[in-house]
Each structure stands twice: as C-alpha cells, then as structure tokens.
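U., I forgot to send this yesterday:
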Amino acid sequence: MTNADPFIDEQYRNLALEVLRYGTQTKSRAGDTLSVFAPTRRIHFRGTRRDNEAPILTTKPLNISAIGKELAWFIAGRTNTADLQCKIWDEWAREDGECGPIYGAQWRGLGASNVDQLRDAINATRSRYGSRRAVVSAWQPSDLGAMALPPCHTLFQLAVDDTTDQLHLQMYQRSADIALGVPFNILSYWILQTLIARRLGRAVGNLTIVYGDAHIYKNHVDDLRGQLARVPYEQGVSIDTYAAQAPFDALIEDVRDRDAFVALRYALSTLEPIDINRRAYKCVHPAVKYEVAI
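Result:
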C-alpha cells in the first residue's frame, strides 16, 4: 500500500464487503455465518499519519473504556473478571469469574509456558541487529482446554525500522467476528503498539492485521449492511496515551505490581478521542446492538 492508504473505515468496509459478497454459508459452534478463509483484504494502518491518529471506526460508537480495561487486564496477566471491571467476558467466565489461562496469562508467562513473552519480545527489539523473534503467542495447545475461550487474536510480532525509527506491529487473527470483534481488536492493538513504541523511544509505525477465518453471523448481516451505508468521519481521530505510559512501563518490569495495574486500567479506560480541531470526538451515529455469539 502507498501513503494514500484509505481511512480505517474504508478498509473495514472493504473487508466486510468481501465477506458479504464471497462468504460461504457455514455452521459454527456459535451460529450460522458467512465466512471467508484468508480474505484478500487486511487492515494496514500506516504510522506516517498525523501524530496520535488512531484507527477508530466512526460508523458506530466504540466502547473505548471497555477496550482499555481489557487491554490493561491482558498486560497485567489477569484472568479473572473481578479485575476487569466490565462485562465483556462474563458470558464465558466461570461462576467465580475465572477465565483460565487466556491472553494475559500467555503474554506474561503465567500459563503452561512460564515465559514472559511480552517482556521478552519488547527486549528482543533492542537487539543491535534487530530481531525476527519478537513474537507473542496466545495459542498454547496444552492450555486450550482450560481456557474460557481459545484466543481469537492469536499472535503478534514486533519489528523495528531503524531507517524511520518506527516500531511496526503485525497481528494474526485466526477467528474474526467482523461486526463485533474486529473494530474492537484494531484499536486495542494500536494502543498496545503505541505503548510499546514509547517504551522503546520509537515512533509508532505500521499496524497490520491479517485474518484467518473472517466471518459475519447471519443475525448480524442486515444491521452490518446498514452500518456500512453510513457516512464515516474522514478527518482522523486522535488518542493521547501518555498518561498510561508510566504504569505500562512498571507492569512490564513487574507483572505483579497491583498499583501499576490499577493505574493502567484507569488510564486506558479514560482515554478520550479528539477530532482534527482538537475537540472531543463523539460518534454521530447511533449504536448498533449486535448480539454476542456465545
């Protein structure tokens, strides 16, 4: 892609339309879907855009508070919904709130691997010669049976470009719920990339997301078509994550730092997007109430 990459809304729309047009009818554990395996469309959000510009979908409101809380929960290696302070995992958690060795446990070495992958990947990018091994995987076969839900966004890789002084991130999502999960995950990984880049003293580079099974649940189709017909805000929306940097850095050093986790959760759950005129951004479109597939 070139410097003229389309805004995130257009990229998302193109991905969704590919699934709507070419998806095969598939029966899944959670309901009937239209599915495309390895769609040609991907997300590629260039790091050369305006400072702090974030890939926020603007054709529906996003629950940025929930995105921030979940990301802090992952970074801190937490797996119980009592620490999450929102309800997005309630449908899968056990009665005691435990979700098993999911993302956070795998990222921070609290699952079967006992390896702090997130810290190791960040440190790997500091190698004098760069590294192709800065990979974090949430897919641990020996832990899958104990997880409330196997990881949908399976792994990500970091890469440093010394020419541009940027940190790039690519994520592979094995299972992509186009209506609900994809917009949420895009912004979450951009925030994570931003925090890692600043820890390394780098600029935020390209965010690339590629998909395995991209699907739209049949009961989402009509509402999604309506959403795709909406006019997006194409001036760009920015998010300042600086308040989250200190607690993020502290948690990378010590995953068990409870105070740092609480501070990071608060900072990420109170992020406020702003428009091109530096005013608070608010989506002008009504919410779309997609039913969660269990």
